[in-house]
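User: Could you check the structure of this?
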Amino acid sequence: MDHLMPPNNVTEFILLGLTQNPHLQKILFLVFLFIFLFTVLANFLVVITISLSPTLSAPMYFFLTYLSLIDASYTSVTTPKMLIDLLCRRRTISLGSCVAQLFVEHLLGGSEILLLTVMAYDRYVAICKPLHYVTIMRLGLCRLLVVVAWMGGILHATVQILFMIHLPFCGPNVIDHFMCDLFPLLKLACRDTYWLGMVVAANSGAMCLLILSMLLVSYAVILNSLKSRGSEGRHKALSTCGSHFTVVVLFFVPCIFTYMRPVATYPVDKLVTVFFAILTPMLNPIIYTVRNTEVKSAMRSVLKRRRT
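Assistant: Sure, the predicted structure tokens are below.
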């Protein structure tokens, strides 16, 4: 991507990382290495389990497969570079690699936001229109919704990058972060980025806020419809919706905090990014499996099959 950049004096950025303390860096390396390996293995276990289990053929599990793939990919974009930097004295990233990382981050993040919206729609149809669920949520529609989620992520990331690749960087090249992100880069640009920051806030923060508001309304409708259900049906519906709502909050709230504001960076930004870029992909497979007896039973069957 280097040939897309405007003329400037900066060819690479220096990432300050999470901490400058050498002892703490070694501890964080071990902690995040464990989290990274667990996240990738847990998400791929979910994918393999759903793919090999005929009992997990419902649309909810079809979407969960792609959510797990996105989570495994998302953490693989940021964590390996951060792990390497925790062991290195000089932490640099080229301008082209920085833009590439930024593009993939927002492609996967945008796709996950839309996929979580699709999963909320699936739960709405399953609970509020149970008699028409099989007719509405056909396999063809499920595939189309996944494609729309991916295309939406590509569009979102492309819009962000089209603005970023034309920014000149000619001064300081130190980023107080462990990865490339929009606001730290905008602060280093050699021109006024106020209005560009507003576009970023609209494309990322406002989009998250709008979709979260829509999801909250849909959950209010779902909860209202459960009043007429029996206790067993209500408990099962609340269990699946509760898992999805937890994942939505874990992803959307940090996203809104990070991007729903003018161009500015704060020390807490790194912790918030760690939460939604590294910890949330680890928590998602746990949240969706711990309270789901069907997935847990299917996982046991898959693991027993591999032993024999």
